[in-house]
Amino acid sequence: MKKEDCFYLGKIVKKYSFKGEVLAKLDTDQPELYENLDAIFLDLRNNFIPFFVESSQLHKSELLRIKFEDVETEADADAIMKCGLYLPMDLLPKLEGNKFYFHEVIGFKVEDKNFGGVGTIKAINDSTAQSLFEIDRDGIEILIPMNDEFIVKVDRTHKTILVETPEGLIDLYL
Question: Exposure winner among 26, 112, 147, 163, fewest CB in 10 A?
C-alpha cells in the first residue's frame, strides 16, 4: 500500500496510559465512523507501516483512543507519537450532493452561471481562512472561494462544478 492510495485520517497527539494507549486527533466531521478499525497505516519516519488495532473508542468526542497490538509500554507509545494515520481510499465514505473531498474535485471543470466556462481545478488552497478553488484558465490562475452559497451543483458524472459567483469576481483575474 502506497501513501497515494490512502487518505489522511489524523495524527497521534498524546499518550493515554502507561500500557501503550494513545490519543489521535481525527481530521473528520464524523469521528464515530472510525471507532472500530482493524488496522491503520502509520507514517513512521517516512515509512508507511500497518499497525493492527486491539481496541479503539471515542474519547471526549473529537479524539480517538487507540490500543495498537505490540504497543505495550510508554516507550512504545513515544516511538509513534505525532505519526500521521492513514486508511485506504476505499474506506472513505462516499459523499453525495454538493459535498466533496478536496482530492476528488482536482481536474473538474468549473462553470459559472453568469460567466460561463471558467477553467479546470488544479488544486485546493486550504491554508487560508476560506478554502479556495485554484483554477487554471489557459495559464491564468483564478481563485474562487469554496463557499456553499457559490457552489450550485457538483456533477461527478461530467466532472464539473457549477458556481454562481458575485458579478465581477472572475473578471478581476482576466
Answer: 147
SS3 content of the chain, % helix, strand, coil (to 5): 15, 45, 40
The answer to whether 82 touches 68, Cβ cutoff 8 Å, is no
Same domain, 37 and 58: yes
**pLDDT, position 95:** 82
Which H/E stretch holds residue 78?
A: helix 74-79
**Of 47, 70, 91, which marks where a domain is finished?**
91
What are 131's three cell numbers? 478554502
State the pLDDT at residue 66: 95
Please state whether the predicted TM-score (pTM) of the whole model is above 0.70. no
DSSP code at position 4? G
Co-location of 41 and 119 in the same domain? no
> What b/e string do you get for 81-98 counting C-beta neighbours within 10 Å, with b at 16 or more?
eebbbbbeeeebeeeeee
2-19 pLDDT, tens digit per residue, is: 888 888 899 999 999 889
Residue written as cell 495559464? 139
Q: Tell me, what's the pLDDT at 32?
A: 86
87 and 142 share a domain? no
Whether residue 56 is found in the same domain as residue 23: yes
CB atoms within 10 A of CB 131: 13
Give a yes or no: residue 27 inside a domain. Answer: yes
